[in-house]
Amino acid sequence: MLAAMGNVPRHLFMDSSFADFAYQDKAFPIAAEQTISQPYTVAFQTELLHIKENHQILEIGTGSGYQTAVLIEMGAKVFTIERQQELFKKTKLFLPKIGYSPKKIIFGDGYKGLPEDAPFDGIIVTAGAPFVPNALLSQLKVGGRLVIPIGDEEQIMTLFIRTSEKDFEKHEFGKFKFVPMLNKKN
């Protein structure tokens, strides 16, 4: 996993004024009042997914595309949703220019997921959600994993593993701080 992150030059995904600080373990602003997560957080969330080659992964919160690129480097087929129009337009053009082509990148409401492409082996949410959207849980394959930071001001990194059509295991992994997950109302 760390090798995949090393193949993705983080400074390309950030405002140029932060390029000299790109590999510090800090979150930095990107655009539209959003941030690129610190490398530790990207690695931590990605590791919880247990990605295997050709896994279908839904990413909620494309942002600058850094997490998307890491997932692609790991061999995942990535479907990604961004709610901020400014970031969506920029990242949709930028990722292919640097050699990363997600299966699908759409502007939309991450709370709804992507039912037309479900089920997914994994879903990763890169923004703080006040609750777990049932739509995301329903779009996991049996054995699939949802990694989502849950909470308002501060979030608990939470992993849900689908164990059957109706059952899930829940695991919590400590406190994190993310920008809020937006829906069509925000």
Topology diagram in text:
Elements: H1 2-6, E1 28-29, E2 35-36, H2 39-49, E3 56-60, H3 66-73, E4 77-82, H4 85-97, E5 104-107, E6 120-125, H5 134-138, E7 140-150, E8 155-162, E9 168-176
Parallel strand pairs: 3-4, 3-6, 4-5, 6-7
Antiparallel strand pairs: 1-2, 7-8, 8-9
Molecular structure report:
- This protein is α/β, with parallel strands linked by helices.
- It is built from five helices and nine strands; from the N terminus they run αββαβαβαββαβββ.
- The strands form two sheets. The chain has a seven-stranded mixed sheet with strand order 5-4-3-6-7-8-9.
- β8 and β9 form a beta hairpin.
- The model has no long low-confidence stretch (mean pLDDT 86).
Structural class: alpha/beta
Count of separate structural domains: 1
Instruction: Provide the succession of SSEs.
Output: HEEHEHEHEEHEEE
Radius of gyration: 15 Å
Ends distance: 34 Å
Named at the architecture level, the CATH assignment is 3-Layer(aba) Sandwich
Relevant CATH superfamily: Vaccinia Virus protein VP39
Helix content: 10-25%
Count of separate DSSP helical elements: 5
CATH overall fold name: Rossmann fold
Largest sheet: 7 strands, mixed
Low-confidence stretches: none
For the structure shown, list the relevant keywords.
two-stranded antiparallel sheet; 186 residues; 9 strands; Rossmann fold; alpha/beta; 5 helices; seven-stranded mixed beta sheet
